Amino acid sequence: MSNASITASRNNIGVAIFNAIDFLKCEQLNYGEFKTYLSIDKTMKSDSCTFDGTPFTTALVLYSLKFVEDPRVSEMTQKAIQFLVEERERGGVWRFWSSKNPRNKLCPPDLDVTACIAYVLKQHYSPLLYSFLFGSNLNIFLNCRNDRGLFYTFISPNLPRNPIDSGVNANALLYLGECEETKPICDYLNDLVLSDREKGSDRWYAETALYYFISRAYFQGASSLKKSQNVIVEKTLALQLADGYFGNDLNTALAVCTLLNYQYSDRIVLERAIHSILERQGENGAWSRIPLWSATPEVVWGGEASDWPVGFWGSEELTTAFSIEALARYQQQLEMN
Predict the structure, then answer these.
(1) Mean pLDDT by 10 residues, the chain (337 residues)
(2) Which of 258, 266, 270 is nearest to 217 (CA)?
(3) Helices 229-237 and 183-194 sit at what angle, rounded to 10 degrees?
(4) For residue 210, which phi and psi values (nearest 5 degrees)?
């Protein structure tokens, strides 16, 4: 790539990130939450969506925004952190649905949401202050494992069907880090990928999201996951279309982040993907509303009667945050070369 094209890429990326941050700042709710929508329609057309507040989305958005230095990000982060802190329950755990959501008590606190929120809070507080403010929930995690050392989803010892999911375990690994207690998680995730069994290993997330969660755990220090690095990179690249797109705005952003988590550096591949992200940004600075996860009562509770809604969850805020992460990190890669 010529110096002129690198300069052009940097300028275009900078403008896109600036506009995307403006969108997030305008859409952040006054108490700090970033919105989530529930839809019975996978396309998430606006007339099929309802607001369905969860602190999980806010935690994911904050992780992605950590790659950007901007006064507006600092302001948004302070509000979002306050929201997450207020949602904390006894023992340092969180539920999927926020306390403002009528569905709040439909399910017990869960490790997936707790791990993602606790991790971003640890990013923003010193270890000593984090421990003082929120205590240690390590024992809660360690008491929520099966006989193979894998983490259940829900923090509920009496739940008859408590699922073991790969995405949940990847996020628990992100939070707890690689250690003796999480070694079974590294082995489990590596084995799933290397034996081509990751599809269907998580009842919430598609493979693109799972690859992102595994790769960010690796990027943040779980070095044993290097064993499956090349295979995840190959499987991610196999999803790319001729124009650089990965099927939809969310998958494209997640794919780029996954590749960058593994220090992938093929400029042609990345440039095509980044170009497709830039092309699809809306005039309001956002990217499309695409579901990041989905669920049915049959999948969650094994067919038992439940008030758990059937549907798909996502938001423009989520897709935009992942797109910001992809653009910001690619820009950083350009500046290093």
Answers:
(1) 56 96 98 97 91 98 97 98 96 96 93 97 91 87 96 86 93 97 98 96 92 98 98 98 96 98 96 96 98 80 66 97 98 88
(2) 258
(3) 40
(4) -60, -45
Task: Please identify which residue in the block is written with the tokens 């421990």.
Answer: 131
Q: Are the C-beta atoms of 165 and 203 separated by less than 8 Å?
A: yes
Query: For 294, which DSSP code?
Result: E
Instruction: Kindly report the backbone phi and psi dihedral angles of residue 205, in degrees, each rounded to the nearest multiple of 5, phi listed first.
Output: -110, 150
Residue 144's Cα: distance from chain center in Å? 22
pTM across the whole model: 0.95
Domains of the chain in start order, with CATH, are 3-336 (1.50.10.20)
Residue type, 100: K
Listed residue (252, 277, 184, 182) closest to 220, CA to CA: 182
Which residues lie closer than 8 Å to 279 by C-beta, 6 or more apart? none
